[in-house]
Amino acid sequence: MVDQSYEKLVTKTNPVPSSGSATLNRASSTLANYNWLSFSGNEDMGEGLKATYEMSLRYVGPDTENRAPQNYLSHVGLEGGFGKVKLGRQWRPLFTAVAAIDPTQLSATPGFAGAGKAGTGLSGLAPDPNNNTLTYNLPSLTPGLFIQAQKGFADATQGENFGGYIIFTDGQKFYATYAINSAKMLKGNIFAASLTGTNGTNATISGATLLGKNGLDHLLYSSTNGGETRESSTLAGSYNFGVVKVVGGVVTEKVNGTKAKLDMDVFGLNVPLGAQANLGYLHTKANHTRAAGSTFSISGDKVLLSYNLSKRTTTYFAWGKQRLDGKTAAGNEFSTAMSALGLRHSF
Known about the structure:
The chain has one helix at residues 93-99, and strands at 2-13, 20-28, 36-46, 49-58, 70-80, 83-90, 130-137, 145-152, 161-169, 174-184, 190-192, 204-205, 208-209, 219-222, 229-240, 245-255, 261-273, 277-289, 295-308, 313-324, 334-345. By secondary structure, it is an all-beta fold. The strands form 3 sheets. It has a 17-stranded antiparallel sheet, with helices on one face. The radius of gyration is 20 Å and the shape is globular.
């Protein structure tokens, strides 16, 4: 997968005591999130048993970041009458269930309030695969019903975690899911109101570093010793009316034993514009509660207009914006906006 775009990020802050704005122009993998190379396949072992594998690397191709390729989705598995078992680095069930109906496909861009990287936002919706996981898909008990459970083992970068989903769909008109994610925090882990579009830009505005905190501290909770449980869940679905598909859902995450919590509402539309073009829109609003009990909210909107040049090549325009809606320290306001024009090719 090779995805490159001309991307412009504009962030404005009004922290106390100073204010400012910053603009970042760059080449980026806006739609795919990364350029990556994948090898996958299966072997029929007879008697209904099949072995599967996938190995992929990210940060390959024309990325702007000068870094070595890293492990991406990589797992081995077995399939049979017992269901499917996979071991390795895989998507979290909550992310899989929600990404399936995101009409913009832009989980890692401004607009999905609170869905941050590196554990700062909603951990269950993090747009990075989960390390060291064992995943089991039950055999379908009835047509259209899918059940998955995942166990993630602790390592130096993550605590022990568990996730799962139940999906019911007819494959065309309706889709409904309930998904969960539960993870143990490591020492120093934070739960923050992260803006996904500013994470990792390394930009500074008047002394305010844009790394998910944006000006004054929008930290919900910080783990001192580790071991606290972060639990997230979602109830989401979609219905295709033909001329438009409507998407909606609610997502909640909290740190057990504290007041730290995030409640997010999601609404979106997907509009086919002929056989090759598509328009997607998503609105989110996340209400945040800090461990100390103070509250504020962040809302976001994002749009994706795509056109399929062929079966493997898509050109697109993407736009997203998030903004702090208040209920926090006086003058502590910010917004971040992203626009991009790009080309994605799968092979």
